[in-house]
Amino acid sequence: MPRPQLFQHVEPNYGATVTIVTYQAQDHTHVIAHQATLESGFRQIIELGEERKVFLNESEGLWFVVWRGQ
User: Fold this and answer.
1) 3-state secondary structure the chain
2) Which residue, 2, 5, 13, 24, has most beta carbons within 10 Å?
3) Number of separate domains in the chain
């Protein structure tokens, strides 16, 4: 991956129940290949007690939805 950051933009929605992240289209294969380990990777770098800042519901973890808008 030629860029230092995988995700280009991170934005919570109005209800703060979903965070939308965007990445470059050419990184799609990389993201899909690593989506199973992204959550565990995040959990390894989050400081103890800070999980609620990343995961709204810890038991649900990350959800992945691919949207290819215009």
Assistant:
1) CCCCCCCCEEEECCCCCCEEEECCHHHHHHHHHHHHHHHHHHHHHCCCCCHHHCCCCCCCCCCCCCCCCC
2) 24
3) 1
8 Å CB contact between 1 and 13: no
Which two structure tokens, joined as six digits, stand for 49? 């007690």
The two three-digit tokens of residue 54, written as one number: 């990343």
pLDDT in tens, 7-66: 777 777 666 666 777 888 888 888 888 887 888 888 888 888 887 777 777 777 777 777
Contact between 54 and 42 under an 8 Å Cβ cutoff? The reply is: yes
Whole-number Å distance between alpha carbons of 7 and 22? 6
Residue the block writes with tokens 């470059």? 24
